[in-house]
Amino acid sequence: MGTVRTQGYAEQEFEAEIFTIHAVIQASARSSGEAITAGKKQMEHFLQTMLDRMEIAPEAFVMGNYSVGQSYGDRPQYRFSRSVSIKVNADPALMERITELLENMSDVEFRMEHSLADISEKEQLVLRNAVADARAKAEMLASALGQKISGVKSVNYGCPECPASDGQLLRCAAAPTNSLANRLHKPMEKISKDIEIEWEME
Predict the structure, then answer these.
(1) What are the residue boundaries of the structural domains of the chain, listed by start?
(2) Is residue 179 within 8 Å of 96, Cβ to Cβ?
(3) Closest alpha carbon to 50 in 181, 179, 176, 172
(4) Has residue 192 got a pLDDT over 80?
(5) Measuring CA to CA, how many Å separate 79 from each of 23, 25, 63, 66, 85?
(6) Which of 3.30.70, 3.30.870, 3.40.30, 1.20.140 is the CATH number of 21-113?
(7) Lowest-pLDDT choice from 79-93, 115-129, 147-161, 178-192
(8) Considering only CA atoms, which of 143, 147, 138, 121 is closest in space to residue 196?
């Protein structure tokens, strides 16, 4: 009887399944009140355009806090900004349509992030591969000692790199497009698992 300690590692890339769009609606005016009024009108225009052109209801967006700040110079102005975000399925054609739409809106800044759905299931898959890697090493060492693995005494594992939770996802249908951009590969997300196991031998 005895024990042997081995480390297992597994890493796997998965195609992104969710795109998160972060937009900031902005407006400027000579007073804070005018900036807020202009900003609200700009927000209404943004939401109405997304509803009319993309069939995305306002309820699908997550609204952030707004702010009003003053700029200084020869002609001081007040600047309104408010953030808004939405999660959609990772369809390149859909993202191309949304991007083109946002690019044609004045005073709208935006960025996009990608992530995975069902992350816990993917983590379990990678973890099982890490365990299998550790067991293969342990069996090789046990065999060299003329013994075999009989059980597990202790386990220590972590997650060196895994993406954040996906949250709520809006699934939208994209119109057909022949754009070359639609032929690009979706971005990839990497999940890796590291595990240390102390095995019992006999």
Answers:
(1) 2-15+118-201, 21-113
(2) yes
(3) 172
(4) yes
(5) 16, 11, 18, 10, 20
(6) 3.30.70
(7) 178-192
(8) 138
172 has pLDDT over 70: no
- The pLDDT-based confidence of 165 (bands split at 50, 70, 90) is very low
Residue 61 to residue 172: CA distance in whole angstroms: 13
Taking alpha carbons only, the member of 89, 88, 98, 107 closest to residue 43 is 107
Q: What angle do CA 116, 118, 121 make, to 5 degrees?
A: 120
Higher pLDDT, 106 or 28: 28
Q: Is the pLDDT of residue 90 over 90?
A: no
Tell me the sheet residues that pair with 180: none
Q: Is residue 194 within 8 Å of residue 157, measured between CB atoms?
A: yes
Using DSSP's 3-state secondary structure scheme, residue 118 falls into coil
Please give the angle made by the CA atoms of 128, 114 and 64, to the nearest 5 degrees: 125
Architecture per CATH, domain 2-15+118-201, reads as 2-Layer Sandwich (3.30)
Q: What is the pLDDT of residue 122?
A: 93
